[in-house]
Amino acid sequence: MTKVYLIRHGKTEWNLQSRYQGAHGDSPLLTSSYHEIAQLAKSLEEVPIAHVYASPLKRARVTAQKLIDHLDRPIPLTIDSRLREFNLGKMEGMHFADVAAKWPEALHNFRHHPDKYDAQLVESESFEEVINRVGTAIKEFCRYNPGKNIVVVSHGAALNATINALVGTPMAHLKDRGGLSNTSTTILETDDAEHFVLNQWNDTSYLHKTKVDPTDII
User: Fold this and answer.
1) Residue 215 included in any domain
2) Which of 52, 86, 157, 188 has the most CB atoms around it within 10 Å of its CB?
3) Domain that holds residue 36
4) What is the mean predicted confidence (pLDDT) over 41-59?
5) Is 92 a catalytic residue?
6) How many domains does the chain have?
């Protein structure tokens, strides 16, 4: 059984400001995020990890490298461009409220009805495109590491869509489980690198947060 630990990167300045941060936005991690990455590492200290794969965007790349540093053991790191965030087109860098005012239907469908989302309206990627590139990468990583544990550090929107698609969720229901939090862990298992089972969704228990900050989740 191959186990995939899917990590959303640490919280950034744009996350805190409620700005859309896709494939072309890349604000710095918050100071507090480095502490949370250390807590993430502690939660994984007993897990034998064969390989870490990360998006090339700095917020994910730094999260992955700091995680390995805290684990303090020789774990190979591969940067793969297929793990980058959803290209959000015209929404990149905009505040959520401004996007809601300018493209209310597109935003509503992006958040709640992926099957109705019109990517052309905001010149973004489609859900199908994101799922294809990220899903293909994850399946490939599993074929390379049969029966082992691997870590994938990527982004909220891309991971949310792809994880749900890999476990067979229909496009209309991709968002039913809710969002993924910064520095969260979701676990998939597979026997054949094609069919996946959800073991754990959006775990942040190791961060010991007493309340949910809505800017943590996408």
Assistant:
1) no
2) 86
3) 2-86+127-203
4) 98
5) no
6) 1
Residue 208 catalytic? no
CATH (domain of 40): 3.40.50.1240
Q: Are 158 and 130 in contact (CB under 8 A)?
A: yes
Strand partners of residue 29: 12
* 6 within some domain: yes
Decide if 132 contacts 122 (C-beta within 8 A): no
Is 182 known as a binding-site position? no
Identify whether 74 is part of a domain: yes
Q: 8 a known binding residue?
A: yes
- Which of the residues 36, 85, 92, 125 is marked catalytic? 85
Other residues' Cβ atoms within 10 Å of the Cβ of residue 118: 13
Domain assignment of residue 146, yes or no: yes
- Locus of tokens 């991690």: 29
Query: pLDDT at position 15, please?
Result: 93
207 — pLDDT class (breaks 50, 70, 90): very high
111 is in an annotated binding site: no
Residue range 149-171, pLDDT digits in tens? 999 999 999 999 999 999 999 99
